[in-house]
Amino acid sequence: MPKGGIFAAALLALGLATGTAHAATCGNTSAGFDNWKQQMAGEAARAGVGQRGLAALQGARYSQSTINADRGQKSFKYSLEKFMQVRGATTIVAKGKRLKAQNAKLFANLEARYGVPAGPLIAIWGMETAFGGFMGDTNLISATATLAYDCRRSEFFTGHLIAALQLVDRGVVSGNSVGAKHGELGQTQFLPGSILRYGVDGDGNGRIDLVGSTADALASTANFLRAHGWRAGAGYQPGQPNYRAIQGWNAATVYQKAIAIMAQQIDG
């Protein structure tokens, strides 16, 4: 799911001013998508995207399933109780406690490095992909390009599309990478601009792999939270200092409260 508070940061990080972001003409149907791609290719090249990234853009297809998902986000309108029931909070907490015990060294290292305890990381991991069980079925470039083309949030997603193409250039992702409907990737679902800005190599193998490496995904999530003001040792419930970092992760109030509750239960 898209992370609230990172769209503008991604645009600023990529140096895309508002006027530049709208250089390519948006549309609300698939009819103009191919023409838009040609315009977008020039914009991407001016932003420094290389041949591999441009080739990935040319291979993008309009994703109607992405548009359907974007128009049909209903769970954030639920009550907190129903949201947690629908999203399987009880299962997330139970499995999360087991994973915390099984990976005690990893979580201790992450807390020592970033100041973020296991609970919030595990709650996000479970909420986003059922601990890597389902990370999406949509082509990353096609999903991101579709939302950059779509007029509803074109400016937001143009920054993420440029980031995705730069990640292709760097070999972090490929034109065939698969993620969620809004272009989120990996075990905790990072949008491309956030991978570019906050992605880290958590397992020390010299690569950033948010899909195949749990350590990379969780370290990147901890890095994101720290960058959004997480303070080691401070509380993360509503009204406490670190709740703001959870708000930076996702803009939906019901999501934020659910993460805080599940994290506290996991941390004990």
In which range does the helix fraction lie? Answer: 55-70%
Q: What's the number of structural domains?
A: 2
Which outline best applies? Answer: globular
Order of helices and strands: HHHHHHHHHEHHEHHHH
- Number of strand segments: 2
CA radius of gyration is 18 Å
Please state the structural category: mainly alpha
How many DSSP H or I helices? 15
Strand content: under 5%
Indicate the CATH architecture of the largest domain.
Orthogonal Bundle
Question: What is the overall pLDDT average?
Answer: 92
Distance linking N and C termini: 27 Å
Order of strands in the sheet with most strands: 1-2
Quaternary structure annotation: single chain
CATH topology of the largest domain: Lysozyme
CATH class category label of the largest domain: Mainly Alpha
Largest sheet: 2 strands, antiparallel
Topology:
Blueprint: H1 7-14, H2 18-21, H3 33-46, H4 51-58, H5 64-71, H6 80-86, H7 89-102, H8 104-114, H9 118-129, E1 138-139, H10 140-149, H11 154-170, E2 178-179, H12 192-198, H13 214-227, H14 243-249, H15 253-267
Antiparallel strand pairs: 1-2
Kindly list the characteristics that best describe this protein.
MltB-like, mainly alpha, 2 domains, two-stranded antiparallel ribbon, signal, 58% helix, Lysozyme, 2 strands, Murein transglycosylase, SLT_2, 15 helices, Lysozyme-like_dom_sf
